[in-house]
Design brief:
Number of strands: 8
Order of helices and strands: EHEHEHHEHHEHEHEHEH
Shape: globular
Mean pLDDT: 94
Radius of gyration: 20 Å
Number of helices: 10
Distance between the termini: 15 Å
Low-confidence stretches: 1-6
Helix content: 25-40%
Length: 346
């Protein structure tokens, strides 16, 4: 195609998918998006398809929120938890197993040389705030953080840095900031630390400090996708831009940031939503806008064109969130639209 929208050449796959195996996912996406993918996740198949839900068994049951089946009433008064109380996350084992499938397909030529293997990780804050009863969060988070860093180091020992792209997902950070702005009332989004923004940035920085210098690094900013609904509708991109700029300022002295992904709701074709992007300070970091929605190629074109009117830099395109909670048909629609509205990289 030759429209203005088609001149985009990069597509980002955020993470999860509804398919059954990593090989099936790899095969589908490289066939659908030839020359457009610089990195490919494994589709977060099986029990990983619903973001962090599979981490539930990692924690002592008495520390878990009652609404998730936890039993805080069983907690022993004064108990001090240690690392033995938190099970390994399993992120490293899953990544290494999928990487073997990635390498097998690359040997056959189905995955092009130079394409990286993408591993998507939540922050410890996301997992702990997502599962743990508030009174235990401050004691459990440092332990889970150690387990996450352990997993990150293990997978980096087994996957060459030149092959690896690590994406850090930030939905809970967005939710906590929206809670602070008075736009969310769920008490489980209430921060358990102060100052909030500084605490968020410090936690992200600690996580990034475990990423090797030659490993590619990206960030996925997210408003959630539970039952295909955001935890709150973004007013515009202002909060996202503010956090992205703070992340860039804090992280670039530690590690290069290769890309940032920002979501775009399906109904936002208005200039007001995109206008804060004019203040986005990314320098050489690639921006991906999550504006591709299933069965809506016309609307996707409109969102692309509005973004181009407002944002003066180049950007790639993506779905708004991972695809683990979509149908196969919707995933295929998103891949088709992404292909139709882009061209292979030169």
């Amino acid at each position: 195609m030759t429209t203005e929208s088609s001149q985009i050449s990069q597509v980002l796959l955020v993470g999860s998918s509804p398919v059954c195996t990593a090989t099936e996912f790899f095969t589908k996406v490289v066939a659908a998006l030839p020359g457009r993918l610089h990195r490919i996740p494994d589709g977060e198949t099986g029990n990983r398809s619903n973001f962090i839900a599979w981490q539930h068994p990692v924690f002592p049951i008495e520390t878990v929120q009652p609404r998730l089946g936890g039993r805080p009433s069983d907690a022993i008064s004064g108990k001090v938890y240690d690392i033995a109380d938190i099970q390994p996350t399993g992120y490293d084992d899953q990544a290494v197993a999928s990487y073997r499938e990635f390498c097998s397909l690359r040997k056959t030529g189905k995955i092009a040389a130079g394409v990286r293997f993408q591993v998507c990780l939540p922050t410890p804050l996301s997992v702990v705030r997502g599962f743990i009863e508030t009174r235990f969060c401050s004691s459990i988070e440092p332990l889970y953080e150690k387990r996450m860093v352990e997993a990150m180091r293990n997978l980096q020992e087994k996957i060459p840095a030149s092959d690896l792209s690590l994406q850090i997902d930030l939905p809970t950070e967005i939710a906590i900031l929206e809670f602070e702005h008075g736009r969310l009332e769920d008490p489980y989004f209430r921060p358990y630390f102060k100052p909030v923004k500084t605490g968020i940035i410090d936690r992200i920085s600690r996580m990034v400090s475990a990423v090797g210098s030659d490993v590619e690094l990206g960030f996925h900013f997210c408003y959630g996708d539970f039952a295909h609904q955001h935890f709150v509708q973004p007013t515009d991109t202002q909060l996202l831009v503010d956090l992205a700029n703070d992340v860039m300022e804090a992280i670039t002295p530690i590690h290069s940031v290769h890309y940032i992904h920002l979501p775009v709701p399906k109904d936002r074709t208005d200039e007001a939503y995109y206008r804060p992007l004019q203040k986005l300070d990314l320098e050489s970091t690639q921006l991906f806008l999550g504006l591709v929605h299933a069965n809506d190629e016309t609307g996707t074109k409109e969102r692309i064109d509005m973004a181009k009117q407002v944002y003066q830099g180049d950007f790639g395109i993506s779905s708004e969130c991972g695809l683990g909670r979509t149908t196969i048909q919707d995933m295929e629609s998103i891949l088709e639209i992404s292909s139709n509205l882009t061209v292979p990289a030169a």
